[in-house]
Amino acid sequence: MSAFWFNRMAEHWTVPQRLDLVEHVRRGRVQLVQMGTYGPMFYGLADDAEVERGWAGMPRIGIEENLALAGDLIPRVQEAGAKVVGQLSLGWIYGDHETGKGLFGNWARIWTEDLLGPPPCDEVAVALQRTVGGKLRCWPIEGRPYRTYSGCMCNPHWLALLKPMVKKAIELGMDGFNAHHNFEQFCQCAHCRHYLMEHLTREFSDDELQRGLDPAGPPATAEYSAPLAVRAAAPRDLRQRIERLLAQLVYRRRKEFYTDAVQAIASCPAGVDELGVDLLSIAAHKFYGPKGVGALYVRPGTRVIPQVQGGDQENRRRAGTENVALAVGLAEGLALARRDRGRNRAHALLLRQRLQEGLARIEGVVFNGDPDRRLANNTNICISGVSAEKILLELDRAGFSASSGSACTVASAEPSHVLLALGRPPELARGSLRITTGPENTVADIGRFLDALADIIRKVRGGALSAHAP
To answer: 0.85 cut: is pTM over it?
Structure first.
């Protein structure tokens, strides 16, 4: 289903039986109707007469009976003027592997020529998440039928299970799906470990992985979502880098990967293939181009829902007349930034070294982030016992521009959620300062800045501080 704008929708968990849905759509000018469930929950529960119909997501008893009902109603709803979407669980099923309930009992029944075709695997258990020791991960939910299980998002059998169900719904005439339960973690199966190691080996050397990962794997008491164990005795920086990537990978697996390269584009290579991203955004003012213009890379085949409706400009991704002058300015600025990237980076590293040497002499300064794996022109610190707002006001009076965070959060009085996630106490995070340099800054500028900052901190805290060596 192509993206479209709507503001009148009828939402039904199951296909409604006590409502003339076609007449409702016609008289209410409904544009979108959600009705019924067409994924693993439906195929596992539809035949069980003892299960409340709401859990099966369809009103009748029997798989074929419900598919016939939907196949008759969908085209009539569409003819009345609405698109039709169904629900599809990307993760959960209800059943009981010990008593043969749900897909554990009717597996052979659904994989026939008339229904879903050949089976993707011998049994549904092969496609489900595992805990430490290889046991099926399942849990009871009060009021829901049987036990709850989750398919493994790295397991090719689970993906192969979903595809025929999607295909069957499309054959019925379905325009699209409301996909849910897409919030699962990795599990303890070999598929998840392979996926994680594939990405870890791209980011870390063999020596780093040997020092950072425990070859014995997770202990028996580990959470199901931690298939790899990071050595507690590993160097702190290495341990944090591995844990950070492991946390990022679960989100990358759930959705198409997007990278905000606004800060990085002028300072380091940002090839979309090398980064493995489907979407990447940049802004011209970060490399001395005109303000008010940016660009979004969209990998072919990646769907983007327009945020601005109207005209067909930019392949219908963003309505409105393009500002050609700003676009040309962005392209020229980016070309110059790429041409001078090596020289500018070397200059920025020199300035950053002088800056950090001076900041290290100020009592109560804490550096944030990795000391080396960072943008060359960027330094982020916290200063204990002071308010960032007071520091920024005084720096501005002294002729220096700095920030207490990214431009996205500069208006917020709350401490940075990123700094809090790094373990900084709220009172320290409120004293954060972001300092960036540019090609026109000099070593002398750094010296004057450090003198000014030391004087300001002395006034705010009432103590004498030396910022840089004479």
So the answer is: no
